[in-house]
Amino acid sequence: MKRDKGLKVSYDTIMKSLGKTAVDFPVALFELDSMGCILSVNAFWQKLTGLHANEVLQKPWFDLVLSSEQPELESKWRSFCSQPEGHFEAFFTPKLTQPNVDFLLVKISHSAQGFLACLENRTELKQANQSNHHLREKIIALFRNSNQMIIMLDRKHRVTEFNHVAAISARQRFFREMEAGEDFINYVQPDRLDDFYSSFEQALTGQHVFKERIIHAPDGQAVSYEMSYSPIRDEQNQICGVCFTGLNIEAQKQMQVLLHHEQLFVSAILDTSSALILVLDQKGRIIRFNQACEKLSGYTFHEVQGKHFGFLLPKSERESYLKRFDDLQVKDFPISTQMPLVTRQAEIRSISWTGTVLLNVEGTVEYHVATGIDITESEKTSKALREHEEMLRQIQKLDAIGQLTGEIAHDFNNILAGIQGYAQLIEESLASGTVAAEHVHEIQRICEKARALTGQLLIFSRKHRPNPRPLNIEKLLLEMNPLFLPLLGENLQLHTDCAPNLPQILMEPTHLEQLVMNLVVNARDAMDKQGEIFIKTFLKDEKREIFVPLFGNRPAGKYLCISVKDQGTGIPVEIQEKIFAPFFTTKAEGTGLGLAIIYGIVTEYGGYILLNSSPQTGTCFEIYLPAMLSTPLSPASSSNLLILGLFEKDLESLENSLGPEYTYSALEIPQTAPPSGQRMISRLTVENIEKIHNWAKQARTPPQVLYLSGTEEQELALLPQLKPWEDILICPMDSFRLNKWLQA
User: Fold this and answer.
1) Please, which pLDDT band fits residue 403 given cuts at 50, 70 and 90?
2) Which of 81, 103, 137, 448 is the most buried (most CB within 10 A)?
3) What is the Cα–Cα distance from 184 to 202, expressed in whole angstroms?
4) CA distance 545 to 554
5) SS3 category, 318
6) Which part of the chain is the PAC domain (predicted)?
7) How far apart, in Å, are the Cα atoms of 264 and each of 167, 252, 272?
8) Is position 231 within any domain?
9) What span, in angstroms and rounded, lies between the C-alpha atoms of 693 and 685?
10) How does strand 104-110 pair with strand 87-92?
């Protein structure tokens, strides 16, 4: 049987008989006899069913149906066949499914020969139905298991459906059971009715309304709720009601409040902490940057937020620090390290960091947290302290060497005195002009040379008692100029530049001459006897006490500077601390005493030395000596000066230091209480200390007392007994310190 032509009627006739018009998609048409067996099929049959015509002709059409569905479908078919008219429609799953064909619709109607039928592919409908079914199941599950109230309302805000949460809420808040059909306003607070009507009407216009409202519980407690009003549409897409939902968010609100307080608390700690607190993400980008970081760096948090922290590191060290950061593992934390930070002003600060990490649920690093302390100033202080300690050791070392050389020189002087004495006796007993007399005379000459050497050692050790007097440095340099010429020779030039109106210095002339001469000779030797030497003098006013390497603390005041500069190769840094030690020399024929003597002289008079030396500029020694006061004390200030228990030589030194214009009274402790502003100079003895302390008890304001001490040992022994208003001056008398004390 031919398929299309075998059909007794046309396609349109069949579709019309089935109650359908022609469609733009193919259907499988077929004819049945009165028993339901297939008589003919059209061209689309095989495509839809996967069966050839000869496989299905003369067979019941319901043999196409899946076996599990066949009994029910066959029963419906038999019932249809018993009726004289009507249409038969049924969905079924075919035994043999094709791609995208697993759900068919069969439509059958009566005809003169039997039945006319068609098959339509409704696989997409099946899938849509399944999706709708799954969606409905999900909605039902959500409706039943949701933790929020869900209430369906019709257009007159009557309850149609509600879930168990809504029922429980009605029972707890309104003490009644919610029922379908009742008006929802029974569950609205009176003061909220207007708000409800407004929201409900908006939903009926198709709007989705979301609100947060405070609902009062029966006990009066306010509870926060999130509410929504959403339109419900029917099959014709018409709004037929409103879905109301309500969620108790009080716990969430409380949690938000607690979280907010916690954030404020943490922020307060971060921003009030004096420590730097820096938080980075996994890639090193800045997440937190507290106020201490802002203050130190000069950047605000908004300027650095999200930037990689590497821009805060010095460029020269950035790569190495970033590599260390990238190589860090979780096991490495917590860590402590020192890392610099570059400020906005390009200043490098030294920071001591302590770091840790915050891990996520997978156990990997989420954040890096680092706290830092700026140790820049403490490092500078520590460095300065180490330098001062080293300087103090050098001072103590030089002092110890000085003490040793002084003792040796003193003993050696005694030996030389004996040798000279006996040599003189021998010389007197010998005839003049004899060889023996010449030998004895040579012994005496060598002894004199040795005594000169020990004299230099005594100057370094400060065992020599100087006899200072006021000196004009410019006049002294002019007088010494003829002495420099034979020392320097033709290839060396000496330039002298003295500042005008310089004050005098109190010093023994031979000491100042020796100091300048040694510096000039030292400069000459540094230049291999050719070049230029510059001597310059000027006044320097120190406003506060200073600390000088190798010399310790020096008081504020005016200092006269003698600067001697050469054009030599400079002094290596590694030996600069050693050059003032006796017998240290780099010259093949040097004695090592020149700079040692300079050190001893300068220290003796309360001065200090600054050294500047480099291979490019040569060496410059700057000798600073205390300048004499240019103005005398007023009679009022000198009339209050009392002298107690001084020796004759002490009084002579005092008069030389103060000058004839100063007056004082030398007497015992008076019976009356000391007046305000009383000053006293006394010999440092236990007896004098006791007398003065007893006398001072009578005064409202204790007197200012200066003790003269002959030795440092005596000063150290009695130091614990002195009061804050007492001071000590080591003899020989330092005119500069004495005048400073009188004017204080």
Assistant:
1) low
2) 103
3) 16
4) 6
5) helix
6) 208-261
7) 40, 18, 12
8) yes
9) 12
10) antiparallel
Q: What is the DSSP letter of 314?
A: -
Each residue's pLDDT tens digit, 99-152: 777 788 899 988 877 889 998 888 887 777 778 778 778 877 777 778 888 999
- Within a domain: 610: yes
Instruction: Tell me the pTM.
Output: 0.36
Considering the domain architecture, whether residues 333 and 188 belong to the same structural domain is answered as no
Integer Cα distance of 655 and 638 in angstroms:
12
Q: What distance in Å separates the CA atoms of residue 94 and residue 105, rounded to the nearest whole number? A: 10
Q: Which amino acid is at 743?
A: Q
Nearest to 619 by CA among 510, 549, 547, 531: 531
DSSP state of 354: E
Give dist(CA 551, CA 224) in Å, integer: 79
Cβ atoms of 727 and 707 closer than 8 Å: yes
List the CATH number of the domain containing 716. 3.40.50.2300
Using an 8 Å Cβ cutoff, are 480 and 516 in contact?
yes
Give helix 509-526 / helix 473-488 axis angle, nearest 10°.
40
Please tell me the distance from the alpha carbon of residue 394 to that of residue 400, in angstroms, as a whole number. Answer: 10
According to DSSP, the β-strands at 641-644 and 679-683 are: parallel
Write out pLDDT tens, residues 272-284.
777 888 888 888 8
Angle at 565 between CA 561 and CA 570, to 5 degrees: 130
∠546-550-551 over CA atoms, to 5°?
A: 45
Q: How many domains does the chain have?
A: 6
DSSP assignment letter at 702: P
Half-sphere exposure of 30 (CA within 13 A, CB side): 31
Q: Using the 3D structure, point to which of 194, 227, 248 is the last residue of a domain.
A: 248
The crossing angle, in degrees rounded to 10, of helices 594-604 and 435-461 is: 50
Segments of 17-75 assigned E as strands: 28-32, 38-41
